[in-house]
Design goal:
Layout lengths: L1 H11 L6 H4 L9 H4 L9 E5 L5 E6 L5 H15 L14
Antiparallel strand pairs: 1-2
């Protein structure tokens, strides 16, 4: 699960927790997780970046609640000197 969270975070260039609302019935990305089984749409995955523009990978945590997994990812990113604040996703903006 952690590998898929990391993959989702870097492929979407955002925290996996942001996808939860986006995949609900009636939302813009409804059905997204059916198209690719690697996509994880709950907390525990974050993109890795030093500047918030250039991304080098993703980090994923698994084994706790999504909130606990997020905390572990944030601690690891902070310890390694990477960005720990992420802009809110808006469609149509890079």
């Amino acid at each position: 699960m952690a590998i898929n969270k990391a993959w989702t975070a870097i492929s979407m260039k955002r925290c996996t927790r942001e996808l939860t609302a986006m995949i609900q019935p009636g939302a813009m990305a409804y059905g997204l997780v059916v198209n690719d089984p690697r996509i994880v749409a709950f907390g525990g995955g974050m993109p890795i970046s030093r500047d918030g523009v250039n991304y080098i990978g993703g980090i994923g945590g698994s084994g706790g609640t999504p909130e606990m997994d997020d905390e572990c990812c944030l601690a690891a990113l902070k310890a390694a000197g990477f960005k720990t604040e992420f802009p809110k996703f808006e469609f149509g903006k890079k």
